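sorry to bug you again but im stuck and you know this stuff better than me. below you get a single protein, a line of residues and a line of whole numbers that encode the local backbone shape. mainly i need to know what kind of three dimensional shape the backbone takes. anything you notice is useful, everything is just below:

***
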Amino acid sequence: MRLSNLDAFPKVQRNIQHATHTGGLVTLLVAGLLAYLAVSEFKAYRDIRQDYEFVVDETRSAEHALQINMDLTIAMPCSYLRADVLDVAGTSLPISKSLNVEKVVFETRGTKRLGYNADKPKMDIHKLVGQAMRNRENDGGSTIRGEETEACRITGSINVNKVSGMLHFTALGHGYFGGHTPHEAMNFTHRIDRMSFGPNYPGLRNPLDRTLEVASTKMDMFQYFIAIVPTIYIDRNRAFGKRALLTSQYAVTDYTRSLTVDNKQGGLPGVFIKYEIEPILVRITESRQGFLHFLTRLCGIIGGTCI
């Protein structure tokens, strides 16, 4: 018995074939459709899918610290600034010595206002800073230009208790003991290049990253109210190493007010970041189509072309 007798797809002899224009058009349409399906399958194989689940957070204990990562620049000399963390448990932690402090020149390039909407007319942030500096000059404040302002860049990571608390940056002598900072030297215009809680994971967006706030007076008080959502990121595509990552994401609202020198309305000039931890945990599972699954579907498409 010859192998040709086992052929399940016998071919029609060419001398009895009849080619038509309609048949050629159908062939082109089918070939285009199969090529589109093949490209779609390859794209689906490359795409990463994220599934979200909401569960009660069972990690809220003293065994799990909260990691705060920051890259903040305030338009004041470092010698006048103080950084502290105070939580609801009554723990006060001076963190100035735990972070990297660097003397820099304050710049606004690459920043945006918090809540900026790309669909709205664009705002010239450099003109905004210039106008704020002119307002300060008219009010008897510093005459230093925005691009020449000495600033303090504060970077690093700290671990704090996983409870609600407040991270604040104030001037020495305003709210704490120590040398008194003259009002003329106070300027809490600041930019936040990074503010996150926990390790980073692919696709994470931090609302405060690369944002800018401009002080209109020497006694401005900037407040951020952050709701932290604990997050577990699970990478099923990783063959080696740690597949689960405990981190956090957050939402933020802000409020700014100008105080008077006699401070009758209460409050302190500075930057105050108040954070609260939500009791709900988000579990993000990242997965991708398996290679064998992709190969099986691709072979089905190619096989249909050959037949």
